[in-house]
Every structure is written in structure tokens, then in C-alpha cells.
Design brief:
Number of strands: 11
Number of helices: 10
Helix content: 25-40%
Shape: globular
Strand order of the largest sheet: 3-4-2-1-11-10
Distance between the termini: 52 Å
Radius of gyration: 21 Å
Largest sheet: 6 strands, mixed
Strand content: 15-25%
Mean pLDDT: 95
């Protein structure tokens, strides 16, 4: 057996293991990290299969190639809903069919706390002029640098912190009962506020940035925080938007559970991945920054915005509140098993 064949087999085994690990029922950060690079794993599997078929044509090599073909099919199946090959989950508003005053534009960005290039995000906000702005990883220095935004945004919820979990929420629209909350961990804040559109209609905005899973650290707090927000959205039963750096990919089991429990729509489904992290590494990108919304809204547009010297790209989305929306799109629904999984996720974190 040649060294090339040995290398191909070793790489193939590693890729097969990377595909199987997320099936392990564990909150281990190491295991849950393999939810993220599905596109990268799929891209690596293809040349390894070809190499095994061409170079390592013994029984073990061909068996491994067949196993990798199954792994490739699974990885592609996970990513497939976020392609234009399926019907969008969130329906787009027809031009001119929705009232302008019933619309809202939202810009979210992880600015990277250590990034001291404040100009790019200030220029971007000036250019895009969103109604709502959520910035995370904002410390005291960022809060000071962002002071000029207060002239444009009269309503501000500020929770600067130096642990990469600070957040700043700005709104042109009136806010009702804005709150900074610590749902699970006393150093990881989130924001909740009622928002009144220019039409007089209202919705609840949730801004979140849970702690990500890392090797050596459990994913349970992240999973539980997302489930807690989802349950709150469902219990309220009011129009809602959940946005932020969720530190979770669009195709994870936690994300699926969040959607079914909350009943919120994902505008990425049927439109594209819109990968936002890592902005500095083109070959290692996945969708971590999200905006979910209830079926009371139709989608105006969703766009990944230019680089702001952070490790995340910003996301801009516009939505329209309309009575027709629930009749045009189908919200996800939770099963009894989903509710059981949600209870277990919260209990595991506590």
C-alpha cells in the first residue's frame, strides 16, 4: 500500500468520524462544534472519494469510499434547505403591496470587541440607515465610539461589557418596556423590547448572543438560552423578531428545535446560506448571525453587508407587517417530543 493510499484512508476515516460525531447525544463543545463545518466537510469528502477509487482500490478503500458517499449525502441533505432548490419558508413581499409605514429594517453585527476600527460600522449604519440596530461584543470603548449614533437613534438599550458579551441596541422607533436580561448566565446579557412601527402596529424584539460551544465547554447554556427565548415567543403569542449572533448554524438540531418551539420563520431557507463568520477566512465560513420572525411579517430583503474589520459580516433585513402574511406562509410547529426536548435542554443547563 502506498503512502498516498494510507493518507487517503486516514483522511477518509477522519471525515467519516466528523460526520458521525454530531449524532452523539452530548452537550460536549468538542462534539457540537462539528455541527458547524458541514459545507467544508462535504467539500473535502469529494476529492477523498475520488482518490480512494483511483488510488486505494482494495476492499477497505472501496468500502470506505462507499461510507464517505453516504456521509456526503447526509452533509448535503443538511445544507440543502438553505439553497435556492427549495421553496422559501418566508414569503417575499411583492413590490408596492405592503405599506411603507408597516415596514422595519434591522441591521445586526458582531463588531469584534478587540476591533478598534470604529469607522466602518459607523459609515455602514449611515449608509444603510436601519430602523433597528443591534451590535454585540461592545465594551466601554465601543460604547464611547458609538455615541454619535444617539443623534440618529433616540431609543438606546446599552449593556457594554468587557467579556465579549456586551450589546448595544438602537432604535428609531418607540420602544416599550426595554429590558436587559441575563437568562441563564450572569455575564451573558440579552435584550427584549416592544417596538411600535410607524403604522402603530407592534412587535417584540429579542436580541441575543449566547456563549458558543468550544472544546472543553458545554453547549448546554447556548442551547437552553435559545430554547428559553423560543418558549417565551410561543407563550406570548405576539408578533416577534429574534436576532443576533446565535453562535449556532442554521442547520443544527438546536436551531431546528428553536424554530419549531417558537414558530418563527428563517428567511435563509430557500434563499442561501448567507455565511457571516468567519469574515477573515473565506474557506471557513458558516451562518452564525440570524434574524427569525413570526409569520405576521413578509420579507422585504435580506443581505449580507460588507466587511467592517470584524470577524463577522453584518446582516441587514427588512420586514413588513401585514394581515395577509399568516395566510401566505406556514409557521413551524412543535410536537410533544419537541417540547420534551426543550424541557430537557433547559434542565441540562440549570
Amino acid at each position: 500500500m502506498t503512502w498516498m493510499a494510507i493518507g487517503l484512508k486516514a483522511t477518509g476515516v477522519l471525515l467519516a468520524v466528523a460526520t458521525l460525531l454530531p449524532f452523539v447525544p452530548s452537550n460536549s463543545g468538542f462534539i457540537r462544534t462539528f455541527d458547524f463545518p458541514r459545507l467544508q466537510i462535504a467539500a473535502l469528502i469529494v476529492p477523498v472519494i475520488l482518490g480512494l477509487v483511483l488510488v486505494a482500490r482494495d476492499a477497505a478503500g472501496l468500502t470506505l469510499a462507499a461510507a464517505l458517499l453516504a456521509a456526503l449525502a447526509y452533509q448535503v441533505a443538511c445544507i440543502y434547505p438553505f439553497t435556492r432548490l427549495v421553496s422559501p419558508q418566508a414569503v417575499a413581499a411583492e413590490a408596492g403591496a405592503c405599506r411603507t409605514e408597516a415596514g422595519v429594517s434591522i441591521l445586526i453585527a458582531n463588531v469584534l470587541e478587540s476591533n478598534r476600527s470604529y469607522g466602518p460600522i459607523l459609515d455602514l449604519v449611515a449608509a444603510q440607515d436601519p430602523d433597528l440596530l443591534l451590535l454585540v461584543e461592545t465594551d466601554a470603548a465601543w460604547a464611547e465610539a458609538l455615541e454619535p449614533l444617539r443623534a440618529r437613534y433616540p431609543h438606546v438599550v446599552a449593556q457594554p461589557q468587557d467579556n465579549t458579551y456586551g450589546l448595544m441596541f438602537y432604535s428609531k422607533l418607540p420602544l416599550t418596556d426595554p429590558q436587559v436580561r441575563f437568562l441563564l448566565e450572569d455575564d451573558v446579557p440579552s435584550v427584549r423590547a416592544g417596538v411600535t412601527l410607524r403604522s402603530g402596529q407592534t412587535f417584540t424584539f429579542f436580541g441575543v448572543h449566547p456563549r458558543p460551544p468550544h472544546p472543553g465547554q458545554s453547549s448546554a447554556p447556548r442551547d437552553a438560552e435559545l430554547v428559553m427565548v423560543a418558549r417565551e415567543v410561543a407563550a406570548d403569542g405576539r408578533p416577534a423578531v429574534v436576532a443576533g449572533d446565535l453562535n449556532d448554524v442554521a442547520w443544527s438540531k438546536t436551531n431546528d428545535l428553536f424554530q419549531r418551539i417558537s414558530g418563527l420563520l428563517d428567511p435563509r431557507i430557500g434563499r442561501g446560506l448567507y455565511p457571516t463568520f468567519n469574515a477573515k477566512w473565506p474557506l471557513l465560513r458558516w451562518p452564525l448571525d440570524h434574524v427569525f420572525f413570526s409569520d405576521d411579517f413578509l420579507l422585504g430583503r435580506i443581505e449580507r453587508l460588507p466587511h467592517i474589520q470584524s470577524d463577522h459580516f453584518p446582516i441587514l433585513i427588512s420586514l413588513y407587517r401585514t394581515d395577509r402574511a399568516p395566510r401566505l406562509q406556514e409557521a413551524p410547529e412543535a410536537t410533544a417530543e419537541d417540547h420534551r426536548a426543550a424541557r430537557e435542554a433547559v434542565e441540562a443547563a440549570r
